[in-house]
Specification:
This protein is of the alpha/beta class and 251 residues long. It has one domain: Rossmann fold, CATH 3.40.50. Helix content is 38%, strand content 24%. It has nine helices and ten strands. The strands form two sheets. The protein has a six-stranded mixed beta sheet with strand order 6-7-8-3-9-10, sandwiched between helices. Strands 2-1-4-5 form a four-stranded antiparallel beta sheet, with helices on one face. It is globular and about 55 Å long.
Length: 251
């Protein structure tokens, strides 16, 4: 049960299947994400993690099963789909900022166009969010003038500016230089502590331990194991998870 008394999951995937040609990338996935939960998805490359993440806001369509968001099946197209993508923010591996727009313009564009906010209101909110992620001083620069870590923090502010019900993170630190990873993870940890519903695909095991309510381990297109971080990292139940952890936690 969440604080507002609503026990229904925000996201529910039921027997979800996805093929890319002959490749079966998601195999009968059953998964829920509760309101306010931080679900971290880990596993070997090619296991279907990013595809799973991208099905939740319909950047990838599915071939079988169904996905329900906030009590409604995912819409196919049109206004319903635009509304879904406003409610489900996305932070990509490669930032995806508009190079020809300033940081401030990148953050205000969605609220003005999709949420129909006034420019003044959108601008005020953008500056609040840029302050929150630590880059308000960069508001009038262009993405190319910022470091990778700063650009990714802009991308998080841009997602937050839409007042989403949930944010998806698809390997948000994997394109960053090592010294920039922590500044992005710190922002994500603070969001988690404030109760933002998040699905995070990541290789950052420290983040999974610190911020996750639940860890989902995926391999070969299937959910192999899911558990609390303490249980998963302390006593994985499956040989596949034990093998994965033995390889990555020794480095």
């Amino acid at each position: 049960m969440t604080e507002n008394g609503d026990a229904t999951p925000l996201v529910k995937l039921e027997n979800v299947n996805k093929h890319f040609g002959a490749l079966h990338v998601l195999k009968d996935i059953n998964l829920t994400v509760s309101r306010g939960e931080v679900l971290v998805v880990i596993g070997p490359s090619g296991g279907g993690k990013s595809t799973l993440c991208r099905t939740v806001n319909r950047l990838e369509t599915i071939d079988g099963g169904r996905i329900v968001f906030d009590g409604q099946p995912l819409p196919d197209e049109g206004r319903g789909l635009a509304r879904l993508r406003a409610d489900v923010g996305m932070v990509f591996q490669s930032f995806n900022l508009f190079a020809h727009k300033t940081i401030r313009e990148n953050v205000t564009l969605g609220p003005i166009r999709v949420r129909r906010k006034s420019r003044e209101e959108a601008d005020r909110r953008a500056m609040e969010l840029l302050e929150r992620v630590g880059i308000a001083a960069q508001a009038d620069k262009y993405p190319a003038q910022l470091s990778g870590g700063q650009q990714q923090r802009v991308a998080i502010a841009r997602a937050l500016a839409m007042d989403p019900k949930m944010i998806l993170f698809d390997e948000p630190t994997s394109a960053l230089d090592p010294e920039m990873v922590q500044e992005v993870l710190d922002v994500m940890v603070s969001l988690a502590r404030e109760g933002m519903t998040m699905m995070v695909v990541t290789h950052e095991m420290g983040f999974a331990r610190r911020a996750a309510n639940r860890v989902v381990f995926m391999a070969d297109g299937q959910v192999v194991e899911e558990n609390s971080p303490d249980e998963f990292f302390g006593a994985p139940r499956t040989d596949r998870a034990k093998d994965f952890l033995s390889k990555i936690l020794t480095h």
